[in-house]
């Protein structure tokens, strides 16, 4: 043990002053116990080495048209032990749901059940090709059909497009379907309304489809301002894109009036389903007047986030939009389930394909396993526990942090940075100090409608003890902030594999790949 | 309920702390008309045993590719995945982590993404690559849109050898995003004169190499033709393993590469999740869609990585974003990175040669069958045959005999009778001599 | 520098002979944070008053720079490509973005002067 650590354990934390926040004595390797520095594979590999034993091909006459690749590619080879160690060390630098609470608002970081992983890997799902004859994959079609049935029942909508690859892709699918429906009516509308509090994918999607984005402000209660909405709703509006519950964690209580106004104007009501976890099994979007809603299987339905993907974003559709759903369609034909892959028959008006093949089957298996595990009673409990957990945190924290909108929230609770006023500490600093305490920070600086937002979504898979511990840490940090313990926050994080990184330098002079040093190109390891 | 930690006692205590009588009070904002008092009409919760029984029952009804002689390609390929790959990607810190927005606690993800970007750049011989997109088809559409932005033109030319799904996705985006496509007809074994179709209003030409019919070509001349008129060359690669054996797009003058990475590290998965690869010239990087991991230093001067150039993306630029993309194919990219780390140059080259050798052996055998004609001049691990009768029926017959023979092109082009007899056959390192015997035998039988 | 005029979008402009020099204000650069990239218009490009002329990117935001006056772009500050930090360090001086030949130089007088801009910024805070 280094001298510093011995001294630290001898004296209580409160006695240590600001001068002791200096970086402790470094180790020889730069490693810190289980946190091990790990070079890039390119800095360790060897061109001749290979971690996969492959037979030599029997002699053959190549038929590559004289277009053989010449020269080395530059990919290093590592043996299996080296690869296992490399990626194991990398994994140990990551925070994950498996490590602890991940309170990211609107991300729904719930537990990822391992049964899902087991079932997705069954050869009957993992080792089947999308272009196999239908007679050889009836079980795959049955699984997709079952998933579709569950999602349609939970949303109350009669049709579902399963191919979009993730939420943003689902939004694209929805807006494209809406535009196709309007064009089929002979109408050209040029605007899409989006609340100020919306996630960035919403306006990006609308703009990508050629729409002008018109922002709708919120009212003092954090909901869409119905009056302003109504003045903006005219025959030039194609759709309203709403998230419900919204990104402030609040249920749009005037949603029926909103839906009515949207429909009266001849527009479509699109719902971003990122926050479905708050209401699944208790409310059906169709009953709220929603025409079109994407679901995030990697949020509400527990498929793993995998460090950023893959996701799956199926889109539930009202009857008015169903004819425009993208290909392929899975239909009940005379001989059973069949994939319709071309614009013919009932699918004549389909908008076409949005993705190769049939959709994220691997995520379908996982999501269905999750839904079956919970059942109708379980999903309802999920929504209730998600809302309960968020409100519990709200009441535990509202006297320490500044609650942006008074009153109950749904599955996530929004605070802003007023509580940090005059402390010299920003939301960012606060979040970095939270990292040192062993937590991934909540969503920060989103939504944009409040200053220095902190959006906390615990999800239903957190125990009460976990929430109590989290609340306790936040309260303690707020106390430190108020006491003027600035150094703790500005120096944070100090205990992580890397401290704050220079994002400015990364953006000014982007280095997006490894390149060999000119000298090393000669020297082979 | 095994995934829900709260007990009824917890719930009671928490409701009391909140100051409400029941959970219903927290749903008070839901309009009464929309409240579901009872349960939705779906089965109730099931234990692991029952869920496993129900879902594996569905899996059991499918013919797994590994259980029969298997020759299907067409943009998704059956390859060996080393056992280490699946174990590593299931580590909880990889499987259950989020997008690396807090870099201090995501260096694992950011480092492998940086390694992945480097691997993709090296494979394609391009300057820079992103941290993956959903799949090859959407990557292709994104490439066209990027070319449109860069050239400020709205017309793209698509080779007839482009995978039909990729073309269809481009068509959907073209219609709604607002640009034009000139898609040439598929012509297996024929020659396209793409150079003639490029004009000063062309944003890009999109070719696939090897193409949908397996043909390999040198596109260096086409690249020059494009550049002469200020257009870009987009090269699509659906079988990334081919880059272990043939000249990469970057050496042919490609400006953007859109590819499918599923062949490395990732199972067939019935078509998803797969792995979109995307690479371009350095000077175009700010117009590149998707995430990018960039190198930097931390407060202690240590090398580390962050997501960078994010201002192009939806969460900042909103309406003006380069793309609306948020999620990537993270875990699939990790599997790719691990597999390729195990292979290295030596392994990748050997694996590519095993694939090509298998395809050459198979092609030589099948073209000996009376009435069967090999269309390709060159091919990697997939080639095209013309049969003496409609391919769809032949494939169906062979499937009944337990052989998955390949893809009848009519599945993609039902309205082109001239393609009725065309069969695309793939052979990877997983094909055995016995498999080839079975295919040859069954095919002879079906055609006699 | 009393020769400066300002817009409500936090651009500054000063006359230099028959040209107008345009950049973003100190307030704007402080709000943006470290500038990482600047997208400048083409020489010869026409810009309209109040419409996008350039884009300035920081790590956390990307912002349009609007032309305070309509005219033709005759020069751009190429040094910002290699050194975008100049926008933060010297926004009114070396951090200038572009020079244009205004269609209507008298429009210059209609813009906020230094005092009016200072009051405007106070209201924002």
Secondary structure tally, helices of chain A: 14
Q: Please count the beta strands of chain A (DSSP E, at least 2 residues each).
A: 13
Distance between termini of chain C?
23 Å
The CATH class name of chain C reads Mainly Beta
Secondary structure class of chain C reads alpha+beta
Strand content of chain C: 35-45%
Secondary structure category of chain A:
alpha/beta
Under the CATH scheme, the architecture of chain C is Beta Barrel
CATH topology of the domain at 116-370 in chain A: Aspartate Aminotransferase, domain 2
Question: What general form of chain A does the structure show?
Answer: globular
How many strands in all of chain C? 9
Summarize the structure.
Chain B has 448 residues and is α/β, with parallel strands linked by helices. Chain B has helices spanning 8-18, 48-60, 83-89, 92-95, 107-124, 136-151, 164-178, 194-197, 220-228, 314-317, 330-366, 391-400, 433-447; strands at 128-129, 155-158, 180-183, 202-208, 232-237, 256-260, 276-280, 293-297, 303-307, 373-374, 382-386, 407-408, 422-426. The N and C termini of chain B lie far apart (60 Å).
Q: How would you describe the overall organization of this protein?
A:
The complex is a heterotrimer of chains A (525), B (448) and C (125). Chain A contains 14 helices and 13 strands. By secondary structure, chain A is an alpha/beta fold. Chain A has a domain at 116-370: Type I PLP-dependent aspartate aminotransferase-like (Major domain) (Aspartate Aminotransferase, domain 2, 3-Layer(aba) Sandwich), CATH 3.40.640. A 7-stranded mixed β-sheet of chain A has the order 1-7-6-5-4-2-3, sandwiched between helices. A 4-stranded antiparallel β-sheet of chain A has the order 10-11-13-12, covered by helices on one side. Residues 1-13, 15-19 and 520-525 of chain A have low confidence and may be disordered. By secondary structure, chain B is α/β, with parallel strands linked by helices. Chain B has 3 domains: 8-46, no CATH class; 65-79 and 345-447, Aspartate Aminotransferase, domain 1; 83-339, Type I PLP-dependent aspartate aminotransferase-like (Major domain) (Aspartate Aminotransferase, domain 2). In chain B, 36% of the residues lie in helices and 13% in strands. In chain B, α5 runs parallel beside α11 and α6 crosses α7 (164-178). Chain B is globular, with a radius of gyration of 25 Å. Chain C has a single domain (4-120), classed as RNA polymerase II/Efflux pump adaptor protein, barrel-sandwich hybrid domain (OB fold (Dihydrolipoamide Acetyltransferase, E2P), Beta Barrel), CATH 2.40.50.100. Helix content of chain C is 21%, strand content 36%. Chain C contains 4 helices and 9 strands. A 6-stranded antiparallel β-sheet of chain C has the order 1-2-3-9-8-5. The chains are: A alpha/beta (525), B alpha/beta (448), C alpha+beta (125).
